[in-house]
TrEMBL record:
Highest taxon in the source lineage: Bacteria
Active-site residues (renumbered): 215 (proton donor/acceptor)
Name of the protein in question: D-alanyl-D-alanine dipeptidase
Assigned EC number: 3.4.13.22
């Protein structure tokens, strides 16, 4: 092996011109740099989901324009952060999912959302019919603003999201979870899509999360009352 390496080193300059350009650049630091918002969250004692379970996929929908506002709401954040209590529960949900469906994974579309971003989101829906789907910052925001809510779905072993009947962030009746029988009867969602939602709910509830009637992808770690008593708002 050593001899082969020597031959390679001596042959390399003669095979390629100019030799100085043919040398590979050493990658000393392959880890992506942490965003400024992530470092702010670190300073507040929040937990990066990747640190509790690196197999959980994170693809923040407000870091791109592919969300219901059509705008980028996160200037730099790309990491998913939660309060440590909620992060621990999410790792337990991933563990339960993998026990039931080896190779499958949770995919996180939003987690901790600072109040400054909540305000941007509210400004988009204010005065429209969609305002029922967004927590008003003037009334203290919602559980995302405490790091205690997560928008999450499931991916199969190839990384493809399981069909759930609507896109994540679809604001409307088809995303509601309290009348799925009717949605199936009307042909709005299929029985398989409902089964996928049930699997997601099962593993999330197993880990202690609560559902939200209007959004199949949204899960709260505790009630709003408990959040206000025990936890801090993230600015
Ligand atoms: Zn949500």
């Amino acid at each position: 092996m050593y001899k082969l390496l020597l031959i390679y080193v001596f042959l390399l300059p003669s095979l390629t011109e100019p030799p100085t350009r043919s040398l590979p650049v050493l990658q000393t630091d392959t880890l992506p740099a942490k965003s400024a918002t992530a470092m702010h969250f670190d300073s507040l004692g929040l937990t990066n989901i990747a640190d509790v379970d690196s197999t959980i996929r994170v693809d923040l929908m407000y870091a791109s324009p592919h969300n219901f506002t059509g705008r980028v709401l996160y200037d730099n954040l790309k990491e998913g952060y939660l309060h440590p209590d909620a992060a621990k529960a999410l790792a337990a949900a991933q563990k339960e999912l993998r026990k039931r469906k080896p190779g499958y994974s949770l995919i996180v579309y939003d987690a901790t959302r600072p109040m400054s971003v909540q305000q941007k989101m509210w400004d988009v829906v204010k005065g429209t019919a969609k305002n029922i789907y967004v927590s008003n910052p003037a009334r203290g925001g919602g559980l995302h603003n405490y790091g205690l809510a997560v928008d999450v779905s499931l991916v199969d072993p190839t990384g493809k999201p399981l069909p759930m009947g609507t896109e994540v962030d679809h604001l409307g009746y088809a995303a509601h979870i309290n009348a799925e029988d009717a949605l199936i009867q009307k042909g709005v969602i299929t029985a398989q899509q409902r089964a996928n939602r049930v699997l997601l709910r099962t593993v999330m509830k197993h880990a202690g999360f609560r559902t939200l009637p209007t959004e199949w992808w949204h899960f709260n770690f505790c009630s709003r009352q408990v959040a206000k008593q025990k936890y801090k708002l993230i600015k």
